[in-house]
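User: Second chain of the day. Same drill as before.
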Amino acid sequence: MNVQEKIRNQVTANSVVLYMKGTPQSPQCGFSGATVQILKACGVQDFAAVDVLADPEIREGIKSYANWPTIPQLYINGEFVGGSDIVREMYQQGELQKLISSVVG
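Assistant: Same format as last time:
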């Protein structure tokens, strides 16, 4: 299985997937940590977190998978939502909560 297939399997097998630096318990960058906090504020207790620092192949592959150059990257129901700035903006506008409520509600 190549890296793109592996990523596709991860995002389709889980309702919410966050590709991040570090883990939810120990984020290794502020943007990843902020995204975890926003997910928790939306009531998401259980989500798949993929530490890109632990897997260089995933770290590079995820950038081309969504054609998005930065990490973190959030996927909900197999669809790319965005990076930290987009997630924060959607949260502030109430859009992220609506999207997540269809998954965890």
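The mean pLDDT is 95.

User: Great, on to the next one.
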